[in-house]
Write a sequence for this structure.
């Protein structure tokens, strides 16, 4: 993975672009967005290169954000997926989280909260990546010992 995060913007509103443009330099990643626009282009771009985060608007003109989310989760499970919506409902929040969204952000975007959510997702992604084979073996050994101890009791 690159040192600099790569982002995909799957939205179509100019105000959203403007908010993301303001946020990215604050992360030190100006110009790192690869795909902007509707759902089909980000799918194509995600198949060409690794992107850290997909910012997905729930309402897109050519594909639903939920459908895009599912496609990205299926083909790029390590990419962090953040749903952004101006139409928040409990139903779509639950649906998107059940389908693999890593975050759910409500418009209008609060730049500080959006940045915090992006930073949190990047941190989680780094932590997942840092789990080495050795750490995994240690975890399995420790867990096996815990299970053995539980069974003895």
């Amino acid at each position: 993975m690159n040192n600099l995060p790569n982002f995909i913007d799957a939205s179509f509103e100019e105000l959203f672009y403007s908010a993301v443009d303001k946020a990215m330099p604050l992360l030190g990643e100006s110009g790192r967005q690869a795909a902007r626009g509707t759902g089909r282009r980000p799918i194509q771009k995600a198949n060409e290169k690794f992107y850290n985060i997909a910012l997905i608007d729930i309402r897109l003109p050519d594909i639903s954000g939920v459908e895009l989310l599912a496609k990205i989760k299926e083909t790029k499970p390590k990419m962090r997926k953040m749903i952004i919506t101006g139409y928040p409902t409990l139903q779509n929040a639950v649906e998107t989280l059940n389908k693999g969204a890593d975050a759910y952000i409500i418009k209008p975007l609060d730049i500080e909260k959006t940045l915090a959510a992006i930073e949190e997702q990047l941190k989680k992604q780094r932590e997942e990546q840092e789990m080495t084979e050795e750490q995994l073996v240690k975890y399995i050994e420790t867990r096996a010992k815990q299970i053995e101890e539980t069974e003895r009791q």
Remarks:
- The CA atoms of residues 79 and 106 lie 20 Å apart.
- The mean pLDDT is 80.
- The first strand starts at residue 7 and ends at 10.
